[in-house]
């Protein structure tokens, strides 16, 4: 009699007289128990439900198996759970909790495969280009506004102050993507997306090419964000913050012309500015040579460029001397409050913009926002926006689900490992779906806290 060999079994080192055999016969199980929390957040904020309003599905609905909402939910939830590639969905689509999270009965439905999901992102440029592989379209402005709206919906009452951080980053291009250009600043071929954050809230992510002047796009995006905030809260104080790349007269004029809107931008140094603080630089140099420790001194003055600015503006100067030598820095602002003295304004307000770098890094590393591997710029922009909505779910879990706990300051990769990627046993009957976590699961208390806090939203 021939021995039957099961290629799906793995043999590990024996434990005494007992063999250790591993297979994947546990069909009704999931390695992504945290999907249930994503479903709860969707029901509270209608992230994907609202996103549907800005898509068009030209498929013949009589033959549709996977709805547009199901496709978007599957793709976005996959990013949250760490599945960056649509190829992962060919197996993961069998997950019963994925179907539950997408509001589908796991007993009768499975998710979409990679080919179907790929058609969602392979968008036509217009309705006439629709064919059997391209039958979805979307409205860019609507998606931009929806991203802002759901983020502002997280405020339970009107905030006294909102600080908007603006910055760009690089998405390295290794293929022949549309709009590919070499960036001298980053020393690589890349896209340079524009981001606007309000704390942890992501309000804007526009994908731009490396040869693009960001000023017009930044101005339009900032106008939209400010308009959305003002439509909700008339008295909220808005502070726009950014590095020297956003120190443009048009952007500063927008803030100056908008009531209760202020700005703090880095100001690139030049010979005129360094000459103005020459005495301060000499003093800190002498003090450094005397005490052998870094020295700094702050001052302020009115300044106007010879051509690019329309008026004089308040400039804060930091005269600093380090082991490497002089290190003068400048910022420009229209904040005139007495509480914002030069040192506090520079160190407490302007330097705090560095936290935005962590948010961008988190979105790139944990939500795979720099995975811009389609040929068309428009399709890559859609992928970027999908990662933004995935980031929203992650932000709600950390900011509201784990408020007042140690995990409220954790990176989402830590939360994903502890909470979202837990193996569960799923039992499906006619009347209920029962999910069981292992008794040895060490973070059950965190699950309870997350569930309680999300229920209270």
Write a structural description.
The protein is α+β, with helices and mostly antiparallel strands. It folds into 2 domains: 164 residues, no CATH class; 226 residues, Alpha-Beta Complex (Transposase Inhibitor Protein From Tn5, Chain A, domain 1), CATH 3.90.350.10. Helix content is 39%, strand content 21%. It contains 16 helices and 19 strands. Strands 6, 10, 11, 12, 13, 14, 15, 16 and 17 form a 9-stranded mixed β-sheet that branches. Strands 3-18-19 form a 3-stranded antiparallel β-sheet, with no helix packed on it. Strands 7-9-8 form a 3-stranded antiparallel β-sheet, with no helix packed on it. Strand 10 and strand 11 form a beta hairpin. Helix 3 packs across helix 14. The longest helix is centred in the last third of the chain and has 25 residues. The model has no long low-confidence stretch (mean pLDDT 91).
Task: Briefly say what this structure is.
By secondary structure, the chain is an alpha+beta fold. Helices cover 39% and strands 21% of the residues.
Keywords, please?
457 residues; alpha+beta; 2 domains; 3-stranded antiparallel sheet; 9-stranded mixed sheet
């Amino acid at each position: 009699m021939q021995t039957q060999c099961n290629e799906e079994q793995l043999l590990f080192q024996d434990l005494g007289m007992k063999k250790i055999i591993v297979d994947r016969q546990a069909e009704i199980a999931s390695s992504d128990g945290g999907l249930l929390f994503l479903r709860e957040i969707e029901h509270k904020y209608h992230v994907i439900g609202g996103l549907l309003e800005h898509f068009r599905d030209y498929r013949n609905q009589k033959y549709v198996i996977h709805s547009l909402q199901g496709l978007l939910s599957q793709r976005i939830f996959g990013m949250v759970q760490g599945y960056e590639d649509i190829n992962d969905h060919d197996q993961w689509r069998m997950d019963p909790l994925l179907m539950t999270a997408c509001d589908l009965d796991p007993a009768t439905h499975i998710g979409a495969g990679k080919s179907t999901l790929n058609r969602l992102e392979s968008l036509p440029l217009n309705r006439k280009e629709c064919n059997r592989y391209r039958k979805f379209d979307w409205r860019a402005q609507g998606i931009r506004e929806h991203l802002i709206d759901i983020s502002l919906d997280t405020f339970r009452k009107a905030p006294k102050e909102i600080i908007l951080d603006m910055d760009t980053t690089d998405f390295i291009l290794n293929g022949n993507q549309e709009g590919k250009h070499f960036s001298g600043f980053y020393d690589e071929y890349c896209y340079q997306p524009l981001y606007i954050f309000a704390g942890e809230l992501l309000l804007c992510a526009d994908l731009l090419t490396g040869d693009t002047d960001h000023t017009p796009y930044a101005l339009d995006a900032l106008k939209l964000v400010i308009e959305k905030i003002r439509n909700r809260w008339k008295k909220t104080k808005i502070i726009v913050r950014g590095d020297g790349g956003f120190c443009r007269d048009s952007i500063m004029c927008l803030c100056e012309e908008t009531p209760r809107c202020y700005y703090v931008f880095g100001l690139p140094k030049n010979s005129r500015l360094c000459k103005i603080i020459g005495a301060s630089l000499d003093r800190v140099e002498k003090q450094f040579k005397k005490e052998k420790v870094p020295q700094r001194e702050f001052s302020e003055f009115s300044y106007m460029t010879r051509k690019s600015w329309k008026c004089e503006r308040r400039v804060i100067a930091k005269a600093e001397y380090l082991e490497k030598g002089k290190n003068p820095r400048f910022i420009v602002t229209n904040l005139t409050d007495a509480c914002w003295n030069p040192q506090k304004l520079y160190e407490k307000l302007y330097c705090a913009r560095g936290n935005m770098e962590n948010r961008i890094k988190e979105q790139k590393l944990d939500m795979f926002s720099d995975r811009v591997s389609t040929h068309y710029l428009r399709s890559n922009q859609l992928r970027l926006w999908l990662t933004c909505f995935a980031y929203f779910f992650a932000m709600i879990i950390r900011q509201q689900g784990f408020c007042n706990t140690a995990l409220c300051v954790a990176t989402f990769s830590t939360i994903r490992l502890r909470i979202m990627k837990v193996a569960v046993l799923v039992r499906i009957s006619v009347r209920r779906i029962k999910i069981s976590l292992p008794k040895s699961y060490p973070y059950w208390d965190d699950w309870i806290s997350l569930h309680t806090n999300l229920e209270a939203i």
